[in-house]
Amino acid sequence: MALAASQSSNTSSQACLSLEDAYEECRKETAQWAKTFYLGTLLLPPHKRRAIWAIYVWCRRTDELMDSPEAMERPVSELSERLDQWEEHTRAMFSGQLQDGLDAVMADTLQRFPMSIQPYLDMIEGQRMDLNCHRYATFEELRLYCYRVAGTVGLMTQGVMGVDSAYTSAPWSDCPDTSEAAIALGIANQLTNILRDVGEDRGRGRIYLPQEDLERFGYSEEDLMAGRLNDAWKQLMAFQLQRAREWFQRSESGVRWLSADARWPVWTSLRLYRGILDSIEKLDYDVFNHRAYVSRWQKLLDLPVSFLISRAR
Predict the structure, then answer these.
(1) d(CA 72, CA 66)
(2) For 10, phi and psi rounded to 5 degrees?
(3) Per-residue 3-state assignment (H helix, E strand, C coil) for 260-287
(4) pLDDT greater than 80 at residue 175
(5) Can you point out the beta strands (E) in 106-160?
(6) What is the rounded average pLDDT of the residues 205-227?
(7) Residue 264 confidence (pLDDT) above 80
(8) Domains in the chain, please, with CATH?
(9) Per-residue pLDDT band at 35 (split at 50, 70, 90)
(10) Long-range CB contact pairs, 289-294, < 8 A, 24+
């Protein structure tokens, strides 16, 4: 389906119909694979939530190149070639060359909310890190990975969220830059994913917890692969959870600058995703045998709380 501005008027209605169908597919995919995130998007105005769904699906397509069950069985050389092709596809999409429905909704999103291609290229580079890097010696190395695969999402979406007009129009104020806070939220979310998915990742031969932290708390790689729930593990995980919470805290400073229609959704997503860390604690850090999540009733209870926080300036 095409969305070129030069389309003739007699095909515009069909193009719009196709675009609606493509957006609906993005909505369904977001709802299926990112339930907590999806709930937050429903609080956005329609044009903004659709853009976020499109960006999410592009990110998921990128992630699936490395993490889908089918990809796991492919040689590194083939996965590397796929990433190269996806980068070429993405560059073509940004230049207006559209091939499918996802390209169509992304082109529409880019027209409504212009943004740089760099975060998209950085995310693809993050996937390349997963080709050969299955261990991270230090947190600084892990932080770079988290930026590329998740902090970039903050940069992709910050233009959609927008900045409050009260700040952009004020003669006494420069337009605030929300980039650092957006990146921090993405890193916090990825650290949360890593802590929740330790058990799943070990089955794929990947350990994202920094090796320096394992050594610091006297918890070996062999312990992790065996899923040992000892005091060293609990101390290690408590340290990791505190680090993730600090990154969430860093992100909070930027939420107050967001446009009024975005603050509630972002606060909701932030608080609910941070709630996964609380769930890990309630499981006594047993992420080997249980999956931490925020229950539906907890999500519903948090909605009014997040709303009130979003209105406090």
Answers:
(1) 7
(2) -75, -10
(3) HHHHHHHHHHHHHHHHHHHHHHHCCCCC
(4) no
(5) none
(6) 97
(7) yes
(8) 1-114 (1.10.600.10), 133-313 (1.10.600.10)
(9) confident
(10) 289/199, 289/227, 291/196, 292/196, 294/36
Residues ≥6 apart with Cβ < 8 Å to 130? 66, 67, 206
Please enumerate in sequence order all residues whose Cβ is within 8 A of that of 303, keeping only pairs 6 or more positions apart, or say none. Answer: 268
CA 278 vs CA 91, 192, 203, 234, 299: distances in Å: 40, 10, 24, 14, 13
CB 179 within 8 A of CB 257: no
Q: Which residues contact 128 (CB under 8 A, 6 or more apart)?
A: 80, 83
Helices (H), 12-115: 12-33, 35-41, 46-67, 69-72, 76-94, 101-112
**In this structure, which amino acid lies at residue 230?**
N
Confidence at residue 70, expressed as pLDDT on a 0 to 100 scale: 83
What's the rounded Cα separation, in Å, for the pair 180 and 219? 33
pLDDT confidence of residue 312: 82
Q: pTM for the full model?
A: 0.89
Angle at 142 between CA 200 and CA 205, to 5 degrees: 30
Give the pLDDT band of residue 235 (cuts 50, 70, 90): very high
Model confidence pLDDT, tens digit, residues 106-129: 999 999 999 999 999 999 999 999
